[in-house]
Design a protein that fits this description.
Translation Initiation Factor Eif1; 5 strands; mRNA binding; about 110 residues; 2 helices
Length: about 110
Amino acid sequence: MANDWKDRLGTVYSTNPNFQYESGDDGEQETLQPNKQDLRVQLDKKQRNGKKATLITGFVGKDEDLKELAKTLKTKCGVGGSAKDGEILIQGDFCNKVIEILKSANYKVKRSGG
């Protein structure tokens, strides 16, 4: 508990010597199996200066697994992108290719949006 003072900002402390601090974090959610994931793939152009990006949403699981899936998709598409908050962003219009890659990895995937 030496370096986690930033996690406790805004916490009210007790003078009770038996007080136990609880952060309220339940831990990370376990990653679902690929066939139980319900992913949505859409083309996104909002706030990107007219540039297209493929957005994959609906991933349920750990950040490490999300980043690993994003790395696989970016490598197979040959482009850059990012992964955070349960979303994967792939630069460019690769919706159909991403859907094929995810289906071959046994993910349940649907195209959403226009």
